[in-house]
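Quick check before the chapter quiz. The format below is the same one you will see on the exam, so make sure you can read both the input and the output lines.
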Amino acid sequence: MTLRLVCASANPDKVAEIERLLAGSVELVARPADVPDVDENADTLIGNARLKAEAICAATGCAAVADDTGLFVDALPGELGVHTARYASDRPEHATDPYGANRRKILERLGAVGAHAESERRAHFLTVVMVVWPDGRELVAEGRCDGVIASGERGRRGFGFDPLFVPTDGDGRTFAEMSDDEKNALSHRGRAFVNLVTALR
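Here is the expected output.
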């Protein structure tokens, strides 16, 4: 019997990616439209994933899956992490173009601190995935991808920081220059959900 999980995310880009990653292993159910957004006010990725999964589980009475991802940039300690999705929320354009605003800000900040060489732009993504069941059980999985922040945007695929992130395990292309399958084989989220499926089995 296939496990059914309600997806806590309302981000259509992320939901589509999770569906591809879980295809054939888990039946992913969309979050009900009437469930309000969860205030992600924890100070860790696992804390935010737990908040989201618990809220959706409580609202639906079904097992729920949530993830939280942070980008960590060596030259900008403490600037992103749990605040990654809202990195440029201090800028007016973030309301209408959050992905673009976040990318422009990180490029500006790296320039401001003098991080121009590739060796000065090291970064990694970390994804934490959590499943919560109505009886209180939890299952956690993680995935990490190391890389560097490119000097400019490259590629038209993906979302978020994909046009800027060049994975160390790749061939020099950004995530946004890769096909979905190529990205998922290397990405933090891909690795986290592979680890989750393994644990569920």
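If your answer matched, good. The helical segments are 12-22, 45-60, 98-112, 180-186, 188-200.
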